[in-house]
Amino acid sequence: MKQQGAIIMNQEFPENFLWGCATSAFQVEGAYNEDGKGLSLADVRSMSVDPTEEPTKALANVGDEIADSKIASDHYHRWEEDVELMKELGLKSYRFSIAWTRIYPNGDDEQINEKGLAFYDKLIDRLNKYGIEPVVTIYHFDFPCGIQKKYGGWRNKQSIEDFNRYACTLFEHFKGRVRYWLVNNEQNAMIRRDSYLGIEEKDILKRERLRHLCNHNMYVACAKAIASCHQIDPEAKIAPVMAYSPTYPKDSKPENILAAKKSEDLYRNYMIDVHCRGEYPAYYLRWLRDNGWDFPISDEEHEILKAGKPDFYAFNYYRSSCAEYCPEDVSPELVERYRVDAKRRMLPGICRHIDNPNIEPFPMNQWRLDPIGLRVAFRNIYERCHLPLMLCENGLGVPDILTNDFKIHDDYRIDYLKSHIIAMKEAVKDGVDLLGYTPWGCIDLVSASTGEMAKRYGLIYVDKYDDGTGTLERKRKQSSYWYENVIYSNGETL
């Protein structure tokens, strides 16, 4: 099934390379309150409030406000059809997440919700039957509302123990059936969104300190879960997942070069150090101290961080960043306003992010697409962690159009994926040890940041719209046939 105009490259990927796709539970499953499932913060976040304007209003009232997760892509009821499509695509792996609140509805229940486990039993067993490797994320933004209300979620040390109990349940139950685990998704992005942390503190500086406290407790929980996995299932491999966007300086001015370096350090590099070395770097601790955001770290926590080191490292890449020096006199209010805006984030006296003047915005979504940035990311991460890597998200979110012939001609998505796979191949030639690639997403799903269906990422179209209408019918996009050929040729034919 060779396509016209395909690019032929020398094969560089290993024979067992994990070509796949990715989703997350709350973005595809739906069935938010079925079969004993409890509510998570991802279920109840409000999409009607701009988090950059009023982050303290991130939690909505339970009920009709849960519009985006009620049905999502209805994967919970249509999983068999979806897996058949994955088989048709020839996927070697499927990255998905397990919803904590399907297993423990409140997060810390005495009894396991057996119906929740049964759903994932069926899904994982079918994937294994078809030779599709399950790559399972334990925690993808969906912290249980029950323990959030009980003790404040990640700000409380009890969250570490509850998370480890949940993770151990999965390791024990799926031992031998899941060989690749991902602990948590994009912790460095999660801590900038109060809706995923349940933070409602109104004082800006106190709110920022709470974010860093939550961040630390998540690090300890991650390390503890990794150590538990190694003990329970020594044959399994486990890693965290970070969001990574290499930061370029605006120009060659020394202050802007330093600004870009500090942006890399404070948003991304320190995270790799904590995960892979088991300790916070001095520059990060200094930054916390200088701002009054530091917190005590016990000897026991130091030991946990040292003991729970990953087997590989996973990251998500969509586009690069650009930064310049930021004056010290920027107000906390302005910093807070742009906290979740990747193009406008700022740290007073350190850096602020700007549009890269050397990359034109993509007309369909105004992203500044940068496949070379992916190669830079591979080099930066690999040279820092010295572990095998997995690229777990990479994709293009745009409003696909179903044409009169009932097809989706998404050449733009093919171009995006092709250019990034070429960069990935070059990284392998550079010496990067790469395990797999699971672009986002497999099927169309609701956006984590906006709750939209219109921002489509999937290789497979889902007939669902932002107003709630649609048949939920699945239809393969042109990009899915192209990707099938990529997998079949093991990346030789692009």
Model description:
- By secondary structure, this protein is α/β, with parallel strands linked by helices.
- It has one domain: Glycosidases (TIM Barrel, Alpha-Beta Barrel).
- It contains 16 helices and 14 strands.
- It has an 8-stranded parallel barrel with strand order 1-2-3-4-5-7-11-12, surrounded by 4 helices. Strands 6-8-10-9 form a 4-stranded mixed β-sheet, covered by helices on one side. Strands 13-14 form a two-stranded antiparallel sheet.
- β9 and β10 form a beta hairpin.
- α9 crosses α12 and α14 runs parallel beside α15.
- The longest helix has 29 residues.
- It is globular, with a radius of gyration of 21 Å.
- The protein starts with 17 loop residues before the first strand and ends in a 6-residue tail after the last helix.
Question: In summary, what is this structure?
Answer:
The chain is of the alpha/beta class and 494 residues long. Helix content is 39%, strand content 12%. It has one domain: Glycosidases (TIM Barrel, Alpha-Beta Barrel).
Helix content class: 25-40%
Beta-strand content bin? 5-15%
Query: Unreliable segments (pLDDT under 50, ≥5 consecutive)?
Result: 47-67
Number of domains as seen in the coordinates? 1
Mean pLDDT comes to 92
Tell me the radius of gyration: 21 Å
CATH class wording: Alpha Beta
Classify the fold: give the CATH topology: TIM Barrel
Q: What order do the SSEs take from the amino end to the carboxyl end, as H and E?
A: EHHHEHHEHHEHHEEHHHEEHEEHEHEEEH
**Structural class assignment:** alpha/beta
Q: Span between N and C termini? A: 12 Å
Q: Give a short account of the largest sheet.
A: 8 strands, parallel, barrel
Return the CATH architecture: Alpha-Beta Barrel
**Using DSSP, what is the number of strands?**
14
